[in-house]
Amino acid sequence: MDKLARNKEDIEETNIQYEYINKLKNIIKSKSDSLNRPLTYNVTTFGCQMNARDSEKLVGILEEIGYIPSKDENADFVIYNTCTVRENANNKVYGRLGYLHSLKKKNPDMIIALCGCMMQEEVVINKLKESYRFVNLIFGTHNIFKFPELLYNTFKSDDMIIDIWEDTNRIVEKLPVSRKYSFKSGVNIMFGCNNFCSYCIVPYVRGRERSRKPEEIIDEIKHLVDDGVKEVMLLGQNVNSYGKGLEDNINFAKLLQKVDDIKGLERIRFMTSHPKDLSDELIEVMANSKNVCNHLHLPLQSGSSRILAKMNRHYDKETYLNLVKKIRNKMPDIALTTDIIVGFPGETEEDFLETMDVVRQVEFDSAFTFIYSKRTGTPAAAMDNQIPEDIIKERFNRLLEEVQQISRRKAKNYTGSLQSVLVENVNSQDATLVSGRMSNNSIVHFPGDDNLIGKIVNVKLSECKGFYYIGELHE
Ligand code: SAH
Ligand code: SF4
Ligand code: F3S
Fold first, then answer.
1. Is this prediction's pTM over 0.85?
2. Which of 82, 88, 108, 199 to pair with 47, CA 20 to 30 A apart?
């Protein structure tokens, strides 16, 4: 890999953070010597796959400096990696902070840290400063690579440390990461979002879109494969605009082709695809690929062209339906999933029926349905005609009913078929079963033990239980 191709300042940053990691190792060692026990950490992740991946980076550093995992929040270092995409995500964090305070009263040396998307909001920081003084460290999404330095500063100071950046163009590579699963991993291909859908807070808290260099991504995936990873999920808020702003002649379709060519990698997923940028070239690469999974998540948000325009989505009902046709034309049995928002400002019964119509026409394999949540600072929050809660609830229930009925019907069609399954874990409710994921992202439970974890095996789906299956191993 051409290391010189990376920004010199960013390469130096990696070294600077490693120096802090070394200093922290000494601090943790002497603390643990004096306590005569290891120090423990607990990381809680809210929100999306991006946050999950960021948490693996935090854990990587914590383990590198000598912390060991704790099964609960009764730990020496506790961090919440927060999400703010909807209001209820926010409320959860405040609720749990109260509980952390009670734990800290029993263990005054406990360090409480907060990071992630919610911390990028000024109102949140003001509230924390005023009423949550027991929090030791607060940082945001743009400076997560400074975690070692910030943690070092926390040990050296009695004050609450707050470091929030408004934006960044920096991408700092090669810091420690500790994966939650040995056999699968998320891989960031880009950060931030430039789409400014009018309801969405993500562009404000994750900053401008920037892509990682293809050679950094490929290099990371090759290392993951050497380390036993079979499945990667390429992560970006809109993977279809990958590569913009890079000097290389690259786009998402070309990157996906390169990833598909990596020897030893068995499965590729990606998240999320914005319909406005999904190219014919990408459909072609997916259809001809060896390892890209038989699943596409294609957020619809609304089926009404009028609402889609107000949402700033840059496609209409017809374009979406045509896109689905084009995709199914090349990949007839691909599983399609989606996100839908109910109750966007000004949504009429007619608009809602357009959404129901698209749901019926496309027959999504599954759909995440969300009640519109007003996010301060977004254009939609200032729009007239916010929809009353009872109307939203009633529409939401109708949509959920329809979506679930279709999902169940579609899932049934696979009963009796043989599927290749990546085994993920022993079933939490029944230890005689293991659970795995099919290429189309459905879950199947079948008799087996932990020797199967991380293996790709053939499973016969004997029974459909609505949204998941019971199966049996096919030797
Ligand atoms: N970048 C991805 C989605 C990120 S957020 C994309 O464009 O598809 C995940 C989902 O949360 C979105 O698809 C949307 O359906 C939902 N969402 C975002 N903002 C929301 C809001 N203010 N209220 C309700 N749902 C919202
Ligand atoms: Fe939000 Fe739209 Fe960006 Fe997705 S594409 S993160 S919905 S602004
Ligand atoms: Fe939430 Fe941030 Fe992801 S707001 S959905 S964690 S990008």
1. yes
2. 108
